[in-house]
TrEMBL record:
Keyword annotations from UniProtKB, A to Z: Signal
Keyword Signal: yes
Pfam families (UniProt xref): NMT1_2 (PF13379)
Signal peptide: 1-23
Protein's name in the database: ABC transporter substrate-binding protein
Gene3D superfamilies per the UniProt record, alphabetical: Periplasmic binding protein-like II (3.40.190.10)
Family matches, as PANTHER family: ABC TRANSPORTER SUBSTRATE-BINDING PROTEIN, ALIPHATIC SULFONATES-BINDING PROTEIN-RELATED
Annotated source species: Mesorhizobium shangrilense
Keyword flag Signal: yes
Lineage, uppermost ranks: Bacteria, Pseudomonadati, Pseudomonadota, Alphaproteobacteria, Hyphomicrobiales
């Protein structure tokens, strides 16, 4: 290199144009499940709001780095695992059951993955569910003996179904006929009465009833078995780029904070991107939702991983063992909490549902009992209206409809479990004094009526009873 060329190179380096040619390009490839709407804070919202770019490091060893951020969307966890093992993805978002399979599959391939955070879950198991065709005479799991039940194999709902069948004292191979079926196929099969029941993960046990093609007869919370969706990362990638892992988790924390503040707004965004109706998205992400968005590794979620590993081994889907304590790695989420100014230990101890801090939209009274809450989303209104009781909400519904306004959805909380329900799919008990309680299952409503008095009614009948008494 002559003196003139050397001086020119120095000048280019000073402008930054020459040095970037030799700078490292780091791939950040993330596999998401957009339609599995409870994973939104680990994928869809980060991508759509460009949150990851806010936190990727640009100092120290990352000073001259160029980031190649890649987003790939999948309908389930299994193909994400395949892509990770093929070296095409660095991060993956999936549930406890396929996530455990991910860890086992990496071991089989001579590699390792790490489960780095929970995104959303239920320590009681809500989120998975079983539905039947709309006109089916079946109202509970106990009536499914000898029936055909479809489920996406190797999914978290598959694990739930096997555990629920065992809890009935049945043999999963002889007492029921379990077949594999993806959600998109199951929807059509339910409409055509080609199957007698379908078990599925978020959001299909709610989406199918919302769209009028099925009825929910079983919620995973009845099994009292924890379930969650979370994020995994390739272990070698995490060791090489721990700051990037923390950046991803800080983006997830911000996504969680944003949807916590404005659940209706971001439920609409999720609906726009995925095609899963915003009314169903709010079931999960709104206050007192079906699941709790929770980024901490509670003991119950660690146990869910252990249970999934044992279930996979019993299904002969795994022939090696995965150490939960080394697979579940909370170092990165703890660092992300600290960098975001949050108290991880306090969050770890918090088991409450996402709170509802509101007053009754009709009476102005404080809302204190979460199991008595009901909500109405009026078409054209950006915010959901909250009520301290189902009877208050039903009276308001009468007025709203009397004004000629359209109602998008009526929500109620199950009086037993506290989970959020679609009102038109629920069963109600109206006591002699007028108090109304909502239930997912007809048998639970009947038990409540026997114990406390009152009549068991469907949604149309409880609406009519409120109308007749006013």
């Amino acid at each position: 290199m002559n003196l003139r060329t050397h001086l020119a190179a120095i000048a280019l380096a000073a402008t930054g144009l020459f040095s970037t040619a030799n700078a490292e390009t780091i791939r950040v490839a993330i596999g998401t499940q957009d339609t599995t709407i409870n994973t939104a804070t680990g994928g869809l919202l980060i991508r759509e709001l460009k949150l990851l770019e806010k936190y990727l490091p640009h100092d120290g060893k990352y000073q001259d780095v160029t980031y190649d951020v890649q987003w790939k969307n999948f309908t389930s966890g299994a193909p994400i695992t395949n892509e990770q093992i093929a070296g095409k993805l660095d991060f993956g978002v999936m549930a406890d059951f396929p996530g455990s399979f991910n860890g086992l599959a990496h071991l089989k391939a001579g590699r390792k993955s790490l489960f780095i955070t929970v995104l959303s879950g239920s320590v009681n198991g809500s989120g998975n569910g079983i539905v039947v065709p709309v006109d089916s005479p079946i109202n509970s799991l106990s009536q499914l003996k000898g029936k055909t039940i479809s489920v996406p194999f190797a999914s978290t709902s598959h694990g739930m179904l096997l555990r629920a069948v065992r809890a009935q004292g049945w043999d999963s191979e002889s007492d029921v006929h379990i077949i594999t079926q993806a959600p998109e196929v199951a929807g059509a099969a339910l409409k055509a009465n080609q199957i007698e029941a379908h078990a599925d993960f978020v959001p299909f046990a709610e989406l199918f009833p919302w769209r009028g093609i099925a009825r929910k007869i079983y919620d995973g919370s009845q099994a009292k078995t924890p379930t969650f969706h979370g994020a995994l990362v390739d272990a070698a990638y995490a060791e090489k780029y721990p700051e990037i892992v923390v950046a991803y988790l800080r983006a997830a924390i911000e996504a969680d904070q944003l949807i916590n503040k404005e659940p209706e707004k971001y439920s609409e965004l999720i609906g726009k991107v995925t095609g899963v109706d915003a009314e169903v998205d709010y079931l999960f992400h709104g206050p007192l939702g079906l699941q709790t968005r929770d980024l901490t590794w509670k003991p119950e979620y660690r146990q869910a991983v252990a249970t999934a590993i044992e279930t996979l081994k019993s299904l002969k889907k795994a022939d090696n063992s995965l150490d939960v304590d080394s697979f579940v790695d909370d170092r990165f989420i703890r660092a992300a909490f600290k960098a975001s100014g949050l108290d991880y230990e306090a969050a770890l101890k918090d088991y409450e549902q996402l709170p509802l801090n509101a007053k009754d939209a009709s009476t102005g009274e404080p809302i204190n009992d979460p199991k008595r809450v009901a909500e109405i989303w009026v078409r054209g209104e950006p915010l959901v209206r909250h009520y301290a009781s189902p009877e208050n909400a039903l009276k308001a519904l009468k007025s709203i409809e009397g004004e000629g306004k359209a109602v998008r959805v009526f929500y109620a909380q199950d009086r037993d479990s506290g989970i959020k329900l679609l009102g038109d799919q629920a069963w109600f008990v109206r006591a002699d004094g007028g108090e109304v309680s909502a239930f997912l299952l007809k048998e639970n409503a009947e038990n409540w009526a026997k114990a406390h008095g009152g009549r068991v009614l469907d949604f149309a009948s409880v609406k009519a009873s409120i109308l007749a008494s006013n």
